[in-house]
Design brief:
- The complex is a heterotrimer of chains A (545), B (200) and C (335).
- Chain A is 29% helix and 33% strand.
- In chain A, the strands form 5 sheets. In chain A, strands 4, 6, 10, 11, 12, 21 and 22 form a 7-stranded antiparallel beta sheet that branches.
- In chain A, helix 3 packs antiparallel against helix 7, helix 8 crosses helix 11 and helix 9 runs antiparallel to helix 10.
- The C terminus of chain A is likely disordered.
- By secondary structure, chain B is α/β, with parallel strands linked by helices.
- Chain B is globular, with a radius of gyration of 16 Å.
- Chain C folds into 2 domains: 114 residues; 158 residues, no CATH class.
- Helices cover 71% and strands 0% of the residues of chain C.
- The chains are: A alpha+beta (545), B alpha/beta (200), C mainly alpha (335).
- Chains in contact: A-B, A-C.
- Chains A and B meet through helix 5, strand 5, strand 6, strand 7 and strand 12 of A and helix 2, helix 3, helix 4 and helix 5 of B.
């Protein structure tokens, strides 16, 4: 049986024209009545052309998502984009460009594409299942019109010739049927199997992501050395759940950061630092037992159904703030965000309580500080060889008392009064490790007490991984098989002639099969050698023009 | 999880929560993530959960150090109804609810319902400064270093937002939870009273 | 160690020098063929008739405006037309020999760079450009062993020369150790296969360009570039391009999958629509579209050829513009 194809598959005409097989599927134009329009629409949707256009539309539709930040991957980027392009933002947002891959239009395209795909592969699969059990089709009446047609004469009887041909075809793993004085053989059913597996795997990947993906989640947490993380919603810094996420699914475990150890080298020519290795030494507490583990970039660890990844790191200087009486009102590490490869880092410290006014500080940290000619500082190496931090302090309402969420890594200075640095006339405070300085206006003092490091960990639970991996492997295997296993037919017709038999050979390809002609010739030659090992190649190749 | 009415007003809301099985919905969480505020904590919408006596989990067991010095353990709290509040100093809703919690703590002091803070981010200094600023009379556990108390409260009704307020029954099991800002002190009062009213 | 780096660069410049001469000779070859073309045009129909492949008829078909090269089986696919280009001149032989020498130098540059760095030589844009062009040239030489596609020599040497020049002059960075993000076995597999895929797509695009030119030339008769008439027919070029591109497509599929597995290790998720992932996906769908177009009536021939060329352009775009100007996690240009 022929592989079932959409009516506008380039093979479709050839199949109809060449096949003598009564069971070949003929696609009849539906009469456009009652259900006719529906069937017509369905035919259109499942046609090659529609699928191709949808595929190319999907290609084009994917582009905008690479041009603007996406909420799913980079929500902060979207916030920033809105700030930088306040006029453009609402328009783009209205078009769902910040959610390209979940947008109505993108979803519509891929859903239509997949409906088209499913509408194509289901009938093809059923058809192929029948074809796998069917005999090769009857031998066409006129082989002359087919590929690689040639004739040869051989001694012996028709039966002998056909038996030898059958043996040779079997050796070449053809399925063989005899019709009268001819053999019809077909091979390469695997091509269609591979094709169907490829397309079904695509559906499988989409279905796995669609269903299992809803149960996944990922969350992010900054942990300073000496602190611990608990896999609990209340502990995460940010958290992105799947649609079907239920907080009761969070397995209880703790991850404490004991130490973070980076390794650096210096490029001798450029003097640029090179990170060689990052290792986070953690202790993991799970089910009442504690174990020590290392997390590296590219080497996440598995904890209770989640995977923990090392995504970032930096310095977390501890500042001590005292009131004018010398009483400690603030003393804790703050994670500073790295700004360059030498780990010049930016920190925001908020001291809402304990001083006469609320104090916010924007601070730069230089692990290996070097003053530039301008007086500004720069860091020349990411290790804390000469740790220095600068502080610009502000006083006023930090905005924490209205219950409204604030960005923990930014200080909104609107409405605040700057008291050091900038245009205040007071130098920014500059502190080496262990040094302290007074805050202006008798507010108190600030000390750079100690230096820790922090890591940014991501915890990810993804129930789709195994399924997607299996389908991806099937997809690749199906693709390779469908592209390189040739589906071909061979026919041998034997006619008694005088003392021997006259043999005719021809083939037919399904899909691209540039080697078919030589395959027919090779078969004819091998067949000839089976019949009469010594026969000279007197067989004249009659090729169709 | 079936629900025991904590307050008549809230019965319907609570019933609806019982169906979803969680109070901080995936949609709300996703919206927080997508908002990209950089707030640095998971906020709750003030939703509350009350657990029927039959459905409560295992008794919570912990032992921890307090910001006022000294330690506290569940042995010290045996047979008592108590309230735990998970917080940290620069979390805006924590600052808003602090006065309400303090007045409830004083209200229930004589009845023998201790309030305990669990500070999940800060050091002793910051925790104490906050307590002085807001006149908080009860102590807080410093949980940032090992997370032991949060781990002890893991389970079906865990601290799932900042702040979270839990009511623990006499058997040491979590009986009720408020996720996020305590908007109505009367809700917490009703939860404590209902838990107190349960047979020993 | 520094010596090796210097030798590597020396080898790159030497390779570029040799490629330049090869490029000139390949171009001269095409030019000489143009001069010789009228004669071969007369000889050709006869040859075709003897060969009996029906190519002449098919090409007439393909060239007719509006007829979208509906190449009916088995007429086109069975054409056992000898793919030896007719009319190749002795310039081609010299150019080809020089290309092989250039490639040996090029390959040596890649190897010494790798030894000097004590790791795979493809961790930044310069190194990837160096290695991918060596792969592309290697694929070209490999394909010439299978089918004589030396008429692509000018295209491939020209392209390689341009790419090598740009990465060496604009993107050169010193040997640096592997940053933690790249310390993974997937660096070897993912990037190697990606550069192989790029090599196949480059050859495929070259063949598709020739196919389009050939189709146009056939439509215009004697007008236009006459060397085109010494090339194999458009249908043969299309079939060759297809067979090269599907190899590229399988490699690209693997690149995408290996990248996803690596992304799961390094970035915490296997797919996150990062800009590089988006463009890898776009390229994948373009070539998937190409393969389907080849099986769709009305899309075979020129339209599918355009898809292959757009696909390869997207590969170049992904390597250049996306690397340099798009924000994303896949930021390993080293610049």
């Amino acid at each position: 049986m022929e592989p079932l194809r959409p009516s506008d598959h380039f093979d479709a005409d050839a199949i109809r024209a060449e096949s003598d097989d009564a069971s070949a599927i003929r696609i009849v134009q539906p009469r456009l009545r009652a259900g006719g329009y529906l069937r017509f629409a369905w035919r259109q949707l499942t046609s090659m052309r529609t699928a191709l256009v949808l595929l190319l539309l999907l290609t084009v539709a994917a582009i905008p998502g690479s041009l603007v930040p996406q909420r799913s991957a980079d929500p902060n980027g979207v916030v920033q984009y809105r700030r930088n392009n306040p006029d453009l933002f609402p328009i783009l947002d209205g078009l769902q460009l910040f959610d390209t891959y979940t947008s109505v239009w993108f979803s519509a395209i891929y859903l239509l594409l997949f409906v088209s795909l499913i509408g194509c592969i289901i009938p093809r699969t059923l058809h192929h299942a029948r074809a796998l059990r069917a005999e090769p089709p009857k031998t066409p009446a006129r082989l002359q019109r087919l590929v690689g047609y040639q004739t040869a004469d051989a001694p012996g009887t028709v039966d002998e010739a056909l038996d030898a041909a059958r043996a040779e075809l079997r050796r070449l793993r053809y399925r063989v049927a005899r019709y009268g004085d001819s053999l019809s053989a077909e091979r390469g059913y695997l091509r269609e199997t591979g094709n169907l597996v490829f397309h079904a795997s695509l559906v499988g990947i989409l279905a796995t992501v669609g269903f299992a993906g809803g149960f996944g989640y990922n969350g992010q947490k900054v942990i300073v050395e000496g602190d611990a993380f608990i896999n609990q919603l209340g502990t995460y810094d940010s958290f992105n759940p799947g649609r079907l996420f239920n907080e009761a699914r969070l397995d209880p475990f703790a991850v404490a950061l004991e130490e973070f150890v980076p390794e650096y080298a210096v490029d001798r020519e450029t003097g640029m630092p090179q990170a060689l290795d990052y290792t986070a030494y953690v202790s993991v507490t799970e089910d009442g037992t504690t174990r020590r583990e290392q997390i590296k970039v590219n080497e996440p660890i598995a904890i209770a159904g989640t995977t923990a990844y090392l995504l970032g790191n930096g310095f977390a200087p501890t500042l001590t703030v005292r009131d004018p009486d010398g009483k400690v009102v603030f003393q804790q590490p703050t994670a500073y965000l790295p700004q360059d490869s030498n780990l010049t880092s930016l920190g925001v410290i908020k001291i809402p309580d304990g001083l006469a006014e609320q104090v916010g500080m924007i601070s730069f940290f230089y692990p290996s500080a070097l003053p530039l000619a301008s007086g500004a500082l720069t860091s020349i190496f990411p290790e804390p060889d000469q740790p220095v931090l600068t502080l610009n302090a502000f006083t006023g309402d930090l905005g924490l008392d209205a219950g409204v969420p604030r960005n923990a890594y930014a200080l909104n200075t609107d409405g605040l009064t700057q008291i050091t640095g900038g245009d205040t006339g007071v130098e920014s405070l500059v502190l080496g490790l262990g040094q302290s300085a007074d805050l202006p206006n008798g507010l108190g003092s600030v000390e750079f007490t100690s230096l820790q490091r922090f890591v940014s960990l991501e915890f990810h639970h993804d129930p789709t991984q195994e399924g997607v991996l299996i389908f991806a492997i099937l997809l690749l295997a199906g693709l390779i098989v469908s592209l390189w296993v040739p589906r071909r037919r061979l026919w041998v017709v034997a006619t008694g002639s005088g003392s021997g038999v006259r043999l005719q050979y021809a083939g037919l390809a399904r899909g691209d099969d540039p080697a078919l002609e030589s395959a027919v010739a090779a078969f004819a030659k091998a067949h000839g050698e089976r019949l009469a090992p010594a026969t000279p190649p007197g067989a004249v190749a009659e090729k169709r023009v | 999880m079936t629900i025991l009415t904590a307050s008549r007003v809230a019965a319907l809301v609570v019933g609806a929560l019982a169906l979803t099985g969680c109070s901080t919905g995936a949609d709300d969480l996703a919206a927080q993530y997508r908002a990209g505020t950089g707030q640095g904590y998971i906020s709750g919408d003030g939703a509350y959960t009350v657990v029927d006596e039959r459905d409560r989990g295992e008794p919570v067991v912990f032992s921890a150090t307090l910001d006022t010095g000294g330690t506290i353990s569940t042995d010290d709290l045996a047979g008592q109804v108590y309230v735990v509040n998970f917080w940290y100093a620069s979390c805006p809703p924590c600052r808003v609810e602090a006065p309400d919690l303090e007045s409830l703590a004083q209200e229930f002091r004589d009845v023998g319902v201790p309030f305990i803070g669990v500070n999940i981010r800060d050091t002793v200094a910051v925790s104490r400064t906050f307590a002085d600023e807001f006149g908080v009379s009860y102590s807080s556990i410093i949980d940032v270093n090992d997370g032991g108390v949060r781990l002890a409260f893991a389970g079906e009704v865990a601290p799932n937002a900042v702040p979270t307020t839990l009511v623990v029954d006499r058997q040491g099991r979590v009986a009720a939870r408020i996720s996020g800002l305590l908007t109505e002190p009367s809700t917490l009062r009703a939860m404590i009273n209902d838990t107190l009213a349960e047979a020993n | 160690m520094d010596n090796l780096v210097a030798y590597s660069l020396l080898a790159v410049y030497s390779a570029m020098g040799v490629y330049t001469v090869a490029f000139v000779l390949f171009t001269l070859d095409l030019a000489r063929r143009s001069a010789a073309a009228p004669a071969s045009r007369i000889a050709r129909p006869a040859a075709s008739l003897v060969g009996g492949s029906g190519v002449v008829a098919v090409e007439g078909d393909a060239a007719r405006p509006g007829s979208v090269a509906v190449i009916e089986k088995p007429a086109a696919e069975s054409d056992a037309e000898p793919s030896e280009p007719t009319g190749a001149t002795r310039y081609q032989r010299a150019a080809y020999a020089l290309t092989v020498i250039g490639w040996l130098l090029h390959f040596a540059a890649v190897v010494t760079r790798g030894i000097a760095a004590a790791r795979v030589p493809w961790v930044n844009m310069f190194e990837f450009g160096l290695t991918a062009t060596a792969m592309g040239m290697g694929v070209f030489l490999l394909v010439t062993l299978w089918k004589d596609v030396r008429y692509l020599g000018a295209y491939i040497t020209g392209f390689t020369l341009l790419a090598l020049g740009i990465v060496t002059v604009n993107f050169y960075v010193d040997v640096v150790p592997l940053p933690p993000a790249l310390q993974s076995a997937w660096l070897v597999i993912h990037v190697l296969v990606a550069s192989l895929a790029t090599g196949f797509f480059a050859i495929g695009a070259g063949l598709s360009i020739m196919q389009l030119l050939r189709t146009r030339a056939a439509a215009r008769g004697a007008e236009g570039l006459r060397f085109l008439q010494t090339l194999p027919g458009a249908s043969t070029l299309e079939s060759l391009a297809y067979r090269v591109n599907v190899v590229g497509f399988v490699f690209w599929t693997f690149t995408l999958m290996a990248g996803a597995i690596w992304a799961e290790r390094a970035w915490g998720r296997y797919w996150g629509w990062d800009t590089k992932e988006v463009w890898t996906f776009i390229i994948w769908t373009l070539f998937a579209g190409y393969i389907h177009a080849r099986a769709t009536r009305g899309w075979r021939g020129s339209r599918s050829a355009w898809l292959a060329i757009i696909g390869f352009s997207a590969v170049i775009f992904n390597f250049t513009v996306v690397n340099l100007f798009f924000k994303g996690l896949h930021a390993y240009s080293g610049l």
